[in-house]
Amino acid sequence: MDRADPEGAIAAAAVACSNWGRWGEDDVLGTVNYLDEAKRREAAALVRQGVSFSLSQRFEMGGPQKGWRRRTNPVHTMLDTGADAVLGHQGFPHGFGGADDVIAMPLQCSTQWDGLGHIFDHGKAWNGRAAEQVVTSDGDRVTGIEHMAAAVTGRGVLLDAGRHLGTDGELPDGFAITTEHLLAVIAAEDVVVGRGDIVLVRTGQLTRARRDGWGDYAGGAAPGLSFTTAQWLHDSEIAAIATDTWGFEVRPNEFEGAFQPLHQVAIPHIGLLIGEMWDLDALAEHCAADGVYEFLLTAAPIPVTGAVGSPVNPIAVK
What we know:
The protein has helices at about 5-15, 35-45, 80-85, 130-135, 160-165, 180-190, 205-210, 230-235, 260-270, 280-290, and strands spanning about 50-55, 75-80, 100-105, 110-115, 135, 140, 155-160, 175, 200, 225, 240-245, 275, 295-300, 310, 315. By secondary structure, the chain is of the alpha/beta class. The strands form four sheets. Strands 1-15-13-7-9-11-12-4-14 form a nine-stranded mixed beta sheet, with helices on both faces. Strands 2-3 form a two-stranded antiparallel sheet. β5 (about 135) and β6 (about 140) form a beta hairpin.
């Protein structure tokens, strides 16, 4: 990998890893197509204990965002409160009262999916479509996140890279997780990863942010996947992948002057569904205790019509 030639590396990976046309010219699901009925039946059979884990961070005003790319933390406002009810301001009969609230936030300010309209490569969106025709001021008119609302339920696999490769369960910022690293973790956990799986990679960065403060968690240096994993992401035929970091791939990026080069291949060319800022810590502790790293995972995006990403509260059930 020539670290001084991001353009060449991205172009080569785009050709080698392209899924354009694989599911037809009208496809809107990308690699989620691998997650079929048989895979969901397999996933349902993994539930043995009935214990469940939310893999979402909380959506709150004290969250990780600090304005980069105009992303803010959620603004939560009450429309009606208990005081309104007690003071009789609501106008309901026979003592009835209630509370209502509203929230305003970027759709990718906390635990979320990157939709297929989120990233382009040289003006091309997923499946080779012209970016300006896919995402307009009206939103993603073709591959909006709403198309995946019923699809993202299947077999989840946790790859705890922080535990198996790091120190005290954490990888340092800037640690590039290679294909060899992923295979080593897979071997250590004695688990199989393949077609239709939803892979969760824990680096331990969120653990560190909880302990030390948010700092540059949202946009700064981080452990993450190496650009060199693009071929594995393609060849393994996984349905989706998510990490406990803001940007999924290693930061700083591995090329001089590059910005998120793995995104530039994974989303528009592989058609890969990518999740970020997932909270994998409690699940990781349970998996380490019982030695089972596979589970039923449901992670439906909120079907906001035309959105290029969505908040999600993923639930893992073992």
